[in-house]
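Re: [ENG-882] Designed sequences occasionally contain unexpected residues at chain ends

Forwarding the minimal case from QA. Structure tokens:
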């Protein structure tokens, strides 16, 4: 071997050190890559959870909007419905057997059934204890204390929320 081709112990040491350094660098790079993968996986999981939460909130908000919109429309229609109730309740005896009058009563009944289907129900009043959340006491009269003795206007509930309180007369305990 020539002197040029001779590998000295120092050269071998340097080569080993360089190889070890490269190995350490590769291990460090692999560890960094593994950390980056874990970070990205966690970020993706958080993003997916955020997206699911956003979808749920959006659906909830849309549902509330639809309920609110229906409530506002019904509030506008309730006076007409109340008048329709009065007209069928106070139908004169001489025209009760008239086919036209019977048709009007049937239309009223169908309207009330449709309102029930969409979640509208009347507030129970007469004979019930006054509930300020459901009833608006306008006057008092002889009768059992805090028990409703007369209903002036019906109240309505839409899907569990009061949209119009019943206007009532309450017993004063005398």
């Amino acid at each position: 071997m020539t002197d040029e081709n001779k590998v000295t112990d120092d050269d071998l040491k340097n080569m080993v050190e360089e190889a070890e350094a490269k190995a350490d660098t590769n291990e460090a790079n692999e560890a960094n890559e593994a950390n980056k993968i874990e970070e990205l996986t966690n970020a993706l999981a958080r993003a997916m959870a955020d997206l699911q939460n956003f979808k749920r909130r959006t659906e909830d908000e849309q549902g509330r909007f639809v309920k609110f919109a229906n409530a506002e429309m019904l509030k506008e229609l309730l006076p007409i419905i109340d008048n329709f109730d009065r007209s069928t309740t106070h139908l004169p005896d001489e025209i009760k057997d008239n086919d036209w009058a019977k048709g009007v009563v049937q239309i009223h009944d169908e309207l009330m059934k449709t309102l029930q289907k969409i979640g509208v129900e009347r507030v129970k009043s007469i004979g019930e204890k006054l509930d300020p959340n459901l009833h608006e006491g306008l006057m008092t009269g002889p009768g059992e204390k805090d028990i409703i003795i007369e209903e002036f206007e019906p109240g309505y509930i839409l899907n569990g929320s009061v949209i119009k309180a019943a206007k009532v007369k309450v017993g004063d305990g005398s």
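QA comment: On inspection the terminal residues look reasonable. The chain has a mean pLDDT of 88. Proposing we downgrade this to a documentation issue.
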